[in-house]
Amino acid sequence: MKIHFREQYGRKGEEILYVTPADQSNIVRVPLRGDKLVIQEKFLLFRVLQKVFLPKGYPDSVSEDYAAYQIWDTAQAFCSTICSTLCTHAIMQGIGVGSENINAYSATVTWIMKEGSGHVGRIVFAWWQGSQLDVDSKKWRLRADFLNDLAMGIEIYVLPKYPHFSTQILCCSTLLKAIVGVAGGATRSALTQHHALRGNLADVASKDSSQETCVNLVASFVGLYLLTLIKSQAVLYTIFYIVVSLHLYANLKAVRSVCLRSFNESRYLITLEEFFRSSRMLNPQQVNAMERVTVGKTVSVSLNIKLGLSVKNLIDEYKSSSVIENIVSSFDPHEHFIIAETKKCLGVYLHFETRPQDVLKAYFFAVFYLRDRNQIKEKYWDIQTKWQEFLALAQQEGWLIHQHLLLVDEFRLDWKV
Predict the structure, then answer these.
(1) At what angle are helices 321-329 and 311-318 packed, to 10 degrees?
(2) How many other CB atoms are found less than 10 A from the CB of residue 405?
(3) pLDDT score, position 250
(4) Contact 219, 212 (CB under 8 A)
(5) Are 155 and 173 in contact (CB under 8 A)?
(6) Biggest alpha carbon distance in the chain?
(7) pLDDT beneath 50: ranges in the chain
(8) What is the reported pLDDT for 224?
């Protein structure tokens, strides 16, 4: 028997040999049936659901944390839809659906005011915090769902008690939900991009949408069933409290399961603290486990570091041309950044030709400077050696060193003219 080819669909798919038996001249197909394959063949529904709801090439085509994230994300979507069903019922009662004293026109005005508040909220929030959503996608993902629960809590607890202020209350809750829409949608896109390993962003996003749609459909019927069981406000409040608690817990677990390999300020500071302390490089799994996803930072610096500042800040602080020239001369002429301390912050001034890795390097120099505040000029080559060591170890541990999620302003300058 001669073996011509061995074929497999993905890493965990069926293995097949294409061989020519000793007594034949034609090539035949011979499946290699393992125990796992036999189990999958018995469960036809499992294979159908995998093709419908999971990206093509799963699990090879997505990141390792995809499955854990999607499980918890599905759980939170289920709870969120149940809450939304309960809130819809409360809103309809609040605007007077079924009441003889409320006409269609007044209900329509209330609804338009509610939706208008949401539109304004989306525009203002996107302008105010849009750039932060990439920088802290985990935190904003969690904050978005907390605000969503807060908005639904207002509709459940407050609206029935003050029906005469239904318009104002609905405008307030819709404003919060508008923030949720912007923050939740933007951070979901950031996480989808992280999960799509093969540039299959559209496939991962569409399958995620299919999963959520299916879950929402099932949860809607569960919510309708729960409405038939609610005979008093006490029962409604109890069910809502339990479902919201499960929703927030599932969200926290979903966010914590994500392992991002790009440095934002929080992850970068955690990594740098350990590196400066022990010369050891933490891997992405360790750093993501230490990163705070609620409030605050695991590691902070003594002075705020601002990247991409205008040189006007430097001139306003020092004024003297000799002092500024001394600061510039502290750095190698080939560097694409200058670092200088002012009363309010440690400013990092970037060159026109600055690349993402230069930004990471500038932040590295800035943190090193804040550790002892010696002149960078005196220790420049020591820091340079440390940076090269850090860069090599970071790449070895799987960090993405040619991109970053640090917040950088847009000012660029040239001091080499």
Answers:
(1) 130
(2) 20
(3) 97
(4) no
(5) yes
(6) 93
(7) 37-39
(8) 93
